[in-house]
Amino acid sequence: MACKEQQHSMLITAIRQRLPHGRPLLLLLLLLLPQLLLGPVRSAPQVPCYFIFGDSLVDNGNNNNIASLARANYPPYGIDFSAGATGRFCNGLTTVDVISQLLGFEDYIPPYARTRGQDLLGGANFASAAAGIRDETGQQLGARISFGGQIQNYVQAVQQIVEILGDEDSAADYLSKCIFSVGMGSNDYLNNYFMPTFYSTSSRYTPDEYATALTQQYSQQLRTLYNYGARKVAVIGVGQIGCSPNELARLSTDGVTCVGQFNSAIQLFNREVVQMVNDLNSLDGAHFTYINAYGIFQNILANPGDYGLRVTNRGCCGVGRNNGQITCLPYQPPCPNRREFLFWDAFHPTEAANIIIGRRSYRAQSSSDASPMDISHLAQL
Predict the structure, then answer these.
(1) Which residues are the signal sequence here (predicted)?
(2) What domains sit in the chain, N to C, each tagged with a CATH number?
(3) What letter does residue 348 receive in the DSSP assignment?
């Protein structure tokens, strides 16, 4: 404090030497003192709020206090995150953390589990690990908040926002300026369709039929979000789950080649989602966009060295023999060179990979990264 006062005194002395007349000096000091005392002013975020829906790729703590095996609130998760093991399935930042930074938010968007009242005006993260479009998805892992449940939580949040802003019209106008990101579908394959021991979907649907059924339900759920104020919505496609360390260890012929059965099914789903996004844009005032996570991931896998990555078929943290466990073994030290790993555990990317994906979601590096626009342009609408 003394140092700052000394700097202010020196600056005032210098001004006096240049401006001998009293009134100009007084006027200049009145203009400068707020900046001298408060320091640089941070610009406002590009949008007033950011609402996040999804699964373990973006969950940041909603599963911490529920009876679920899909939890990440213990070390070595969060080893590179300032707050430690918060529930993020990563060593550091998730993709939505990166996007929130790029949107200009001073803090990361908090989990809905601990966000109420005025804090909701900045947005909330509703994501839940093991969640799917289908309500039964992930049930073998215990409790989780399906996409339908996440929407119910959002509806409750909207009711609070209406009370805070005074009426529904004010709330609708406010929400129409916010960014919504939704990334669902991974678990509907990993923890449903490709798990015949627990689920019957693979015996009841062909891959084409399942993609269609999933997308039809997804569309209705997104229309509910629209009915409750969502207008700028980024729909994140499903990535190449057939290239995850778990699937490589279980089903790859050489431990490196991605599992085609998985990726082919995902591509069917993603194509349906692209058409769904186009259809949703016919809604009045709607601006839905598709983020091509599959293509971004494919590009990273094809050119890992361009991004400083070296290891693409193994997780960095300990996940048991042959990457067979889903999450990191508790308190086991991870690899020291995690910035060179694509995957953190058997399924989830490292912070290094999330930074790449988050940046390309926000501002497209390739024309195929987003359709019809990236998140930076969505924010400008």
Answers:
(1) 1-43
(2) 50-380 (3.40.50.1110)
(3) -
Structure tokens at 286: 């709607």
- Burial of residue 214 (CB within 10 Å: 0-12, 13-18, 19+) is buried
Distance, CA of 64 to CA of 59 (rounded, Å): 10
- Per-residue pLDDT tens digits of the chain, which is 381 residues long: 444 434 334 333 333 343 344 444 444 444 444 444 444 456 899 999 999 999 999 999 999 999 999 999 999 999 999 999 999 999 999 999 999 999 999 999 999 999 999 999 999 999 999 999 999 999 999 999 999 999 999 999 999 999 999 999 999 999 999 999 999 999 999 999 999 999 999 999 999 999 999 999 999 999 999 999 999 999 999 999 999 999 999 999 999 999 999 999 999 999 999 999 999 999 999 999 999 999 999 999 999 999 999 999 999 997 654 444 578 999 999 999 999 999 999 999 999 999 999 999 999 999 999 999 999 999 999
Dihedral (CA of 132, 136, 137, 143) sign: positive
pTM reported for the whole predicted model: 0.88
What is the rounded CA–CA span in Å between residue 108 and residue 131?
A: 21
Q: Which runs of E-coded beta strand occur in the chain?
A: 50-53, 123-125, 179-182, 232-236, 287-291, 311-315, 341-343, 370-371
Cα gap 1→6, rounded to integer Å: 9
